[in-house]
Each structure stands twice: as C-alpha cells, then as structure tokens.
Amino acid sequence: MQIITATKELKEICKKLSRADFITVDTEFMRDSTYWPKLCLIQIAGPDDEVIVDPLADKIDLAPFLQLLKNQKVKKVFHAARQDIEIFYHLDKVIPAPLFDTQVAAMVCGFGDAVSYENLIKRTLKVPVDKSSRFTDWARRPLTEKQLAYAMSDVTHLRGAYEEIFEQLKKAEREAWVDEEMAILLNPSTYDLAPADAWKRLKARHNGRRAAAILQKVAAWREAEAQERDLPRGRILKDDALYEIANQAPKNKSELDSLRAVPKGFANSKAAQSLLKAVKQGLDIPKDDLPSVSKPKPTPPGLAPVIELLKVLLKMKCEEHRVAQKLVANVSDLELLAADDDASISALKGWRREIFGDTALALKHGDISLGLNGRRVVTIKSKRSGHKETPPRKAS
After folding, report:
1. 238 within a domain of the structure (yes/no)
2. Which of 177, 154, 184, 27 is nearest to 106 (CA)?
3. Which helix (H) or strand (E) holds 78?
4. What CATH number corresponds to the domain at position 277?
5. 3-state DSSP call for residue 349?
C-alpha cells in the first residue's frame, strides 16, 4: 500500500494506472457540518497497485487523478458511486467514464435492493469485511494503520468482486441492463444542485398555489445560503420552518419572529432580510403564473385489488429473473400501470417490459391469472390468451 501526499508521486502512479483495463476507486469524506462534502481520502487499486491519496496533504494537486477519471481507456469501478461522483463533479465538473457501479450490477444480478459493500464481498468472494472504522474522523491527521487498512480494503476486495459480478452479467446477457442505469450516473444533471430546484426535495406541505410559490422561493434562498456558507441546509433553517413560512407568508421581521418553527433571534439576522425578500418574490408572482398544485388522486374504485395483484406479480417475476424489484418498478409505477395501459413508466420499456410489463398487462386484461403450484405463485394462461412468457436469463 502506497500513501501519496505529493503531486509528483500522484502523477507517476496515475500514469502507471492509465495502462490498466480497470481500476477500483473509493473515497472517504466528511459532511456532518458542511454543505459540500470534504474529501479526506481517495483509494485506488489497479492490477498491481494499491494506493491511498491524501487530498488534505499540503500543496497536493489532484489534477493527475482527475485526468485518470476522464481516461476513456480505463474503466472506473465503484460501489454505490453517486456520492463519490458528486465530490469529483464539485471539484472540477468531472464524471468518471467509462463507469461501472457494482451496487447497480448486484441489483441486476439478483443480490437484492441496494446491497451493501460488505454483503457484496461476502457473497462474491466469501471474505469478511471489517467495518469497525466506518464512522471514524477521516479529516484528522495522522491516520492510524487500522484506518488506512480499512480504507484500502474498500477497493482491494472490489477488484475480485467486480470480475465475479461482471462474469455473471455476461453469462446472463445483462450488460445492457447495467449500461442503462449507468446513464443516470453519467448525466451531469444528477449532480447539478441548482437552488431553483431545491423545492423538489420537499414534501408538499403547503396550502394552495400561492404558498407553493413562496415555498419554491424560500427553498431556493436556503439552498443558495447553504452553498455560499458551506453549511448543511438544516443549519440555515429546518424544513418545518420553510413550510410554516410558505403558509404564513411573513412580510416583516415581527411576523417572521412570531413563527414557532423559526428560531428565536433569527428575524434580526442578516439572513432574515434576504429571506423576507424571497417571500415577497413569491407574493409578487401574478396569479396566472403561480405553480400548479396537484393533489394526490384517490385510487379509482376497483383498482386497489389490481394494484395488489401487480405487487405479487412483480415480486414473483423479479424472483424468477433474479433482479431487484426496486430496479423494475415501485408502488407509484404499479398504481399508474393499474390505471393506464400506456402509462409513462420504465416498467413498460425495454428489458423491464420483457420480464414484467407485458405479463402485467396480460394479468390486467385477464389473459393470465395467478395461482399456486405448491408453495410457488405461478401464472396461468386463459384459454383465449396469446401471451407468451419471457424465459428467465438468470445470473448465476
């Protein structure tokens, strides 16, 4: 294991790793008290190299590593890559490519929803993983040998796990399934934290279109404040405070100070002035331009049993094809499918339609039914049915 604290050393090892077919990558970071994650360690493993890069080392330049991430000849293998990529994207708009996420691949191979790194290694390599240093302070220096060994193991075991799971994918002819999911991780919009979109993370706890407009403005205000001051959103104002502000629409410090969810004294702060401006922006939006508010529609009479049948079918088909349910459809998708044969959902497109969507439509229209064969749920064709089942291509 090599610990790199200087740019020259990093440049040399990245040059060597650029000749590898693939490398495994992981990071350790802290974000308990910040908005942006603080990168503390970078772990890299190649065929013959095991490296820990210290991004907190004095004057180290990460440019050689970021170039390696962009090298199209080297596949970058991560487990649960999204947060790691968010860090690189914030550093220099870098998204590693080509990219392979073993957590996504494990879902495609029937390991279950969002399998942990520890479970992945146990199931592919039969090796136990020591996770006792998971919640350590990675920003503190010097790091202990135990911390370094723990960090390094996150990429050394990943080499063998990747090779094992990639073989499973090829045998099951499911590489394209993973590629489809990788497209989401490779899309810059996944990591663009635009303040104007911050309201989309919040639940619809507002009264009407005017309150919705104010919520959008104050959510954008909080996001911009959090980014500028590098503080967690909740350290600026809690979600409950945003909901109350949106519904009560305070116009001055006194009205703001009277709100229960707003911390005492906040109304006299500098931040309160800009918050009240955001509230006013929401109040000033013309009535015709207010955002629409969609209320949850009650399930139409008769559809509830259909949805329950689709849930059983989904579980059955995912077990049969050994793929995680989360990857195929969620409850909202099933509700839409129960109401509309042409619903705009992933379950009616591509490989998902092959293994589930077509069968779900056949169940809806009575071409098949569900029954029991011993303890197993099975589909039973009706006499008039022309439906054909897609045989499972199981990942071994």
Report:
1. yes
2. 177
3. strand 75-78
4. 1.10.150.80
5. coil
Query: Buried (b) or exposed (e) across 333-369, using 16+ Cβ within 10 A?
Result: bbbbbbeeeeeebbbbeebbbebbbbbbbbbbeebbe
Q: Is 266 inside any structural domain?
A: yes
245 within domain boundaries: yes
Q: How far apart are CA 39 and CA 139, in angstroms?
A: 8
- Over residues 22-38, the pLDDT tens digits come to 999 999 999 999 999 99
Separation between Cα atoms, residue 183 and residue 204, nearest integer Å: 29
Calculate the alpha carbon distances from 235 to 34, 85, 131, 163, 239 in Å: 9, 24, 29, 43, 10
Reduce the DSSP state of residue 106 to 3 states and report it.
helix
Going by C-alpha positions, the residue among 77, 79, 75 that lies closest to residue 19 is: 75
DSSP state of 113: T
Full DSSP string of 223-280:
HHHHHHHT--HHHH--HHHHHHHHHH---SHHHHHT-TTSPTTGGGSHHHHHHHHHHH
How many residues in total does the chain contain? Answer: 396
Taking alpha carbons only, the member of 71, 72, 102 closest to residue 84 is: 102
The b-or-e profile of 148-178 (16+ CB within 10 A means b, else e) is bebbbbbbbbbbebbebbbebbeebebeebb
- Mark whether 168 and 72 lie in a shared domain: yes
**Are residue 207 and residue 257 in the same domain, yes or no?**
yes
Conformational region of residue 329, where left means phi above 0, alpha means psi within -120 to 50, and beta covers everything else: beta
Kindly report the number of other CB atoms within 10 A of residue 307's CB atom.
Answer: 16
Give the full edge-to-edge strand order of the sheet including 75-78: 2-4, 50-53, 38-45, 22-30, 75-78, 99-101
Element (H, E) at 368: strand 368-373
The answer to whether residues 112 and 325 touch, using CB atoms and an 8 Å cutoff, is: no
Instruction: Give me the mean pLDDT over the 365-372 stretch.
Output: 93
Mean of pLDDT over the chain: 93
Identify whether residues 20 and 164 lie together within a single domain. Answer: yes
Instruction: Please report, as a single letter, which amino acid is at residue 229.
Output: R
Q: Are both 93 and 220 inside the same structural domain?
A: no
Residue 292 or residue 282, greater confidence:
282
The tally of domains found in the chain comes to: 3
Is the pLDDT confidence value at 64 over 70? yes
Residue 326, pLDDT above cutoff 70: yes
CB-side neighbour CA atoms (13 Å) of 222: 25
CATH number of residue 345's parent domain: 1.10.150
Yes or no: say if 45 and 79 are a contact pair by the CB < 8 Å rule. Answer: no
Beta bridge partners of 28: 41
